[in-house]
Amino acid sequence: MAKKNKMKPRELREAQKKARQLKAAEINNNAAPAIAAMPAAQVIAPAAEKKKSSVKAAGMKSILVSENKMYITSFGKGNSAVLEYEVDKVDNNNYNKTQLSSKDNSNIELGDVNEVNITFSSKHGFESGVEINTSNPTHRSGESSPVRWDMLGLKSELEKRFFGKTFDDNIHIQLIYNILDIEKILAVYVTNIVYALNNMLGIKGSESYDDFMGYLSARNTYEVFTHPDKSNLSDKVKGNIKKSLSKFNDLLKTKRLGYFGLEEPKTKDTRVSQAYKKRVYHMLAIVGQIRQSVFHDKTSKLDEDLYSFIDIIDSEYRETLDYLVDERFDSINKGFIQGNKVNISLLIDMMKGYEADDIIRLYYDFIVLKSQKNLGFSIKKLREKMLDEYGFRFKDKQYDSVRSKMYKLMDFLLFCNYYRNDVVAGEALVRKLRFSMTDDEKEGIYADEASKLWGKFRNDFENIADHMNGDVIKELGKADMDFDEKILDSEKKNASDLLYFSKMIYMLTYFLDGKEINDLLTTLISKFDNIKEFLKIMKSSAVDVECELTAGYKLFNDSQRITNELFIVKNIASMRKPASSAKLTMFRDALTILGIDDNITDDRISEILKLKEKGKGIHGLRNFITNNVIESSRFVYLIKYANAQKIRKVAKNEKVVMFVLGGIPDTQIERYYKSCVEFPDMNSSLEVKRSELARMIKNISFDDFKNVKQQAKGRENVAKERAKAVIGLYLTVMYLLVKNLVNVNARYVIAIHCLERDFGLYKEIIPELASKNLKNDYRILSQTLCELCDKSPNLFLKKNRRLRKCVEVDINNADSSMTRKYRNCIAHLTVVRELKEYIGDIRTVDSYFSIYHYVMQRCITKRENDTKQEEKIKYEDDLLKNHGYTKDFVKALNSPFGYNIPRFKNLSIEQLFDRNEYLTEK
């Protein structure tokens, strides 16, 4: 009998995960080979995974349906849509086709159209001239409507909410879904911001459970907030405001708002101090108002509606938004020419075909407005390809100190080439990239373009490199610039250039890190850009359908303007450096996360780091902690979402640390092992290396770093570099753990947001829900839709009796108190808060999903007043016995989402939830 090749648990999990991914890819791509049937250990990744469908790669953007007509669009410049064809249905197999695009603008050639399929070919892109099939969106077996089913049965209600009437097309609902996507991502980020602000109140190992943000309202002025007794509000509301005011003052005292770059002024002038507090209150109240708007159905109240409240509430809030935006623009604009005179001088000397004034304006555009990011391709990647293939000279160590400046100048020359000199070449490159099917194809396209550019820019790049020495830069820095800042007056922006919605989004970025800012703004820009295109098509003479938005959604008539403004917001927003006024608090958090006694006094911290002493060479430890902990974005993230002391205790769980290390690529583990371990055995297995790194993280102590020399040489420098690597690894592992749990929670935040919204919509069409309150029982929507059976407008539950019965079982396995607590735990990120309490009890740590739900279920079954429902006792017994989450309990808790079967299954079944990889260290 052959001996089985036994795999280690982590290897088996990775192989099984890869098998699931390949199976999903096989299904999605209609592949014939039975890859999924192969043993997990034998699965081999495909050489080039497809990143987009052949339909998109060939240039078709969408097929819009209005009554008996279809409108086929292709990708134009940027995200614009080109109306290509109108297809008029005569009967099931007869269609009249009318070309709407001109010969010069047309990107696709329409072929046969029948009841089931539409055939077309690309004129410029993927497999040009080859026929490609896509499904006819008007076809649905057994249905007479020209528009596909709306499985939730809410299409008409959504159209009435957004447009005031219903339509027999799929155009309005697609525009609506883009607006709903905006609300989803805002729900996630505002929930996280509110949690982070509440979390900042945490002291001495226990966070405040009071959600003071929940009682902040932008309908109250700062005067009402600080003196509620002078208002006409009810006694209950006054009491809640007083509680929030007390917590607000506590938050200010912690100095932790400094983590968001909010600098409390050092002044004895009470007016300046009060102005700062007033601005902070306005910021928090707006965040709280947005949270209320996206988490609860507030569409009937304009002063609480997401898209209108900022223009209706007291003007003092808008004044704060103006202040924040103008402050940022002033910091960018003030002395721009003088501040960039070295680079500007070099560019004027090199770019002989340009006027000096024009170069300055273009450089402002490049640095501030960052128009290079709107070209549709990456200037940075082109430069990297050029240097990797041809410019190895520029990677020499002699350029290390000036590399950033050198690359910036190179990128600017490439930007000017596509932005001014050769726009056609840039558009051609965008088309090629759009038509590419895989990452490998994209890399090849960039490589081909780089080879063309090298001959054109080689001399310019060498000229830049020749000027990259200290003496030249120093002399240029001393020279006077003869150019007046007024040259840029027409280019410079200020707060008056932005709508208040855009200013509000900018304000939110104060509370986000760089990755979060990029994700939020990229999504918002994409959605507003899509809405702009839909409105353009709807207003076109060819389509000409009604598109008058209702009062709460008038903002979207300005989608083109908002798209442009959000590009600016994305470019000027950045993660702010921690405020200097909060340094002592940050040093305490930094030392605590490194394992020092949490009860240490401020005086002892000052003594250890010599904060009050002056002198040369005595602040090595202080500077080391500042550079490697406080200024780390991962440390800041951990303090925002977790707790320094609790993070240190979680890090002692070797099983959890090994799990996180298992998600870091092997090559990165090799580098960490080499840089962190004093005497590394590079021939040891990856499992041994991960174990050694996990042990180091488990045993990390402040004593390991207290003797590090900042200005070190020889062996001392080697020890310093090793200490930096260990801290970097430790913060990275803890960051990945917390970040991934926050990301898991975000999926459930979106589900709650959709539940609240959909409940309001269903109430309009289901009489049985008219008198119901979702807060009393979050299962009520799914329960009612199941009870309606064949009378239900929800086709998921109406047409599938078996699934309906399954949902009913899950509803009955929960109760109202469980699901209410579950909803509140999701809204307040309780899993992250309580991670330390329960994570040590898990027997097997093999996914973030399993961690999340085990901790969540322990929180739900936690004893309260020594009374429990029978269901809670049963589930708790299972949890304590099995030391892992209970699958049936997950489904019971998710039963409020059972009305949307795909979402319910994706949130309840680990294999479906885990289809996409989690965040890893790249």
Assembly state (oligomeric): single chain
Number of helices: 40
State the shape: globular
Report the sheet with the most strands, covering strand number, pairing sense and barrel closure.
4 strands, antiparallel
Terminal Cα span: 43 Å
The assigned structural class equals mainly alpha
Sequence stretches where pLDDT stays below 50 over 5 or more residues: 1-10, 20-48, 141-146, 203-208
How much helix, percentage-wise, in residues?
55-70%
How much of the sequence lies in strands comes to: 5-15%
Query: Would you report the number of β strands?
Result: 7
Chain-averaged pLDDT: 85
Q: Give the strand order of the largest sheet, numbering strands 1, 2, ... along the chain.
A: 1-2-3-4
As a whole number of angstroms, the C-alpha radius of gyration is 30 Å
Describe this entry's structure for a reader:
α4 (171-199) crosses α29 (714-763), α7 (270-295) packs across α9 and α19 runs antiparallel to α20 (559-572). The protein contains 40 helices and 7 strands. It is mainly alpha-helical.
How would you briefly describe this protein structure?
This protein has 922 residues and is mainly α.
What labels would you give this structure?
three-stranded antiparallel β-sheet, mainly alpha, disordered N terminus, 922 residues, four-stranded antiparallel β-sheet
